[in-house]
Automatic annotation (TrEMBL), chain A:
<dbReference type="InterPro" id="IPR052048">
    <property type="entry name" value="ST_Response_Regulator"/>
</dbReference>
<dbReference type="GO" id="GO:0000160">
    <property type="term" value="P:phosphorelay signal transduction system"/>
</dbReference>
<feature type="region of interest" description="Disordered">
    <location>
        <begin position="1"/>
        <end position="33"/>
    </location>
</feature>
<feature type="domain" description="Response regulatory">
    <location>
        <begin position="40"/>
        <end position="155"/>
    </location>
</feature>
<dbReference type="Pfam" id="PF00072">
    <property type="entry name" value="Response_reg"/>
</dbReference>
<dbReference type="InterPro" id="IPR011006">
    <property type="entry name" value="CheY-like_superfamily"/>
</dbReference>
<dbReference type="InterPro" id="IPR001789">
    <property type="entry name" value="Sig_transdc_resp-reg_receiver"/>
</dbReference>
<feature type="compositionally biased region" description="Polar residues">
    <location>
        <begin position="8"/>
        <end position="21"/>
    </location>
</feature>
<protein>
    <submittedName>
        <fullName>Signal transduction response regulator, receiver domain</fullName>
    </submittedName>
</protein>
From TrEMBL, chain B:
<keyword id="KW-0597">Phosphoprotein</keyword>
<protein>
    <recommendedName>
        <fullName>Histidine-containing phosphotransfer protein</fullName>
    </recommendedName>
</protein>
<dbReference type="InterPro" id="IPR045871">
    <property type="entry name" value="AHP1-5/YPD1"/>
</dbReference>
<dbReference type="GO" id="GO:0009927">
    <property type="term" value="F:histidine phosphotransfer kinase activity"/>
</dbReference>
<dbReference type="InterPro" id="IPR036641">
    <property type="entry name" value="HPT_dom_sf"/>
</dbReference>
<dbReference type="GO" id="GO:0043424">
    <property type="term" value="F:protein histidine kinase binding"/>
</dbReference>
<feature type="modified residue" description="Phosphohistidine">
    <location>
        <position position="80"/>
    </location>
</feature>
<keyword id="KW-0932">Cytokinin signaling pathway</keyword>
<dbReference type="InterPro" id="IPR008207">
    <property type="entry name" value="Sig_transdc_His_kin_Hpt_dom"/>
</dbReference>
């Protein structure tokens, strides 16, 4: 999908070889015509089905998304020096659950914004996530509208890419 | 190409009926509208994956509820997951049943849980067959050289 976002930044054709600007220490893509020089990055920790949907919404919003199925896979990424602006994690994960994973990520020193995801509204789930160190809580599905809300918390100037073909609620 | 026009009208009517009957909700619209030239089969891929995932969850639920001593925490976790995935795909009736199912889990009522599971299976089967018909219509439109109408 072509990104038709108006370029607010200067368009000088430089290349980001490793994408390491600000706190986006993850492997960035080469700068391409039409791309913003600084895409927001997100880590999604969820089952393969929900991840596919969540990734699609986030990608359509211009976010670089990485998905993992387990907390251990996520820990490995951070130990390897990756970082993300935003982390979405499901309360239910194989092995270490979402609440414990949140706690352990914070203990590892991860400072990204963490949004806990639950299949069902549970006041207990919300409390457990927040107590574990999550910043926000969201009931599935993660819609484009909810995602924009979280993206704006990270970057108040964030604007969704202009979509020529479809409307997004 | 009157035939294409006919198919497209049929598609729109069928889709509208799915909304009217509460089979799908606006989450499905949003998913469908994520399709584009680079990702023309996205909705179908997602829904197909949902079918596989659901089959697994329904099998697990059946198994868990048929135990002598039902572990309601396990049942609850599967219902929780099913609610998450059904709401992500826009399967409204299935999702709503999961919400009721959860309440029954909390009450630890095996009999009512089993009955609810039956209902979930029926609603899920209905959703599956209707979506399969919808995708069949989409294929026919594309094969006839037409484009799939947007869902509002």
């Amino acid at each position: 999908m072509k990104d038709k976002r108006i370029q607010a930044t200067k368009n000088e054709g430089y290349q980001t070889m490793d994408g390491s600007t600000g706190n986006n220490g993850g492997k960035g893509e080469h700068w391409k015509e039409g791309d913003s020089e600084k895409k927001l990055t997100a880590l999604v920790m969820d089952d393969p089905f929900c991840s596919k949907v969540e990734k699609a919404y986030l990608k359509s919003l211009g976010v670089d998304v990485h998905c993992v199925e387990t907390a251990n896979d996520a820990f490995k990424l951070f130990s390897d020096g990756r970082s993300f602006d935003l982390i979405f994690l499901c309360s239910i994960l194989p092995g270490i659950n979402g609440f414990m994973a949140t706690k352990m990520l914070r203990e590892m020193g991860v400072q990204s914004k963490i949004v806990g995801l639950c299949g069902l509204t549970m006041e207990q789930g919300r409390k457990s996530f927040l107590d574990a160190g999550a910043d926000e809580y969201c009931e599935k599905p993660l819609t484009a509208a909810k995602a924009v809300h979280f993206l704006r918390q990270i970057d108040p100037n964030y604007k969704p890419p202009y979509s020529t073909t479809r409307s997004q609620a | 190409m009157a035939y294409v026009g006919q198919l497209q009208r049929k598609f729109v009517e069928y889709t509208k009926s799915l909304y009217r009957e509460g089979i799908v909700d606006k989450q499905f619209t949003q998913l469908h509208n994520l399709q584009d030239e680079s990702n023309p089969d996205f909705a179908e891929e997602v829904v197909t994956l949902f079918f596989t995932d659901s089959q697994r969850l329904l099998n697990e639920l059946t198994n868990a509820l048929e135990q002598q001593d039902v572990d309601f925490n396990t049942v609850d976790a599967y219902v929780h997951q099913f609610k998450g995935s059904s709401s992500s795909v826009g399967a409204q009736r299935v999702k709503d049943l999961c919400i009721s199912f959860r309440t029954l889990c909390e009450q630890q009522n095996k009999e009512l849980c089993l009955r609810c599971l039956q209902q979930v299976k029926l609603e899920y089967a209905s959703f599956k067959s209707k979506l399969e018909s919808l995708f069949q219509l989409e294929k026919q439109i594309v094969e006839a050289g037409g484009t799939i109408p947007t869902i509002d």
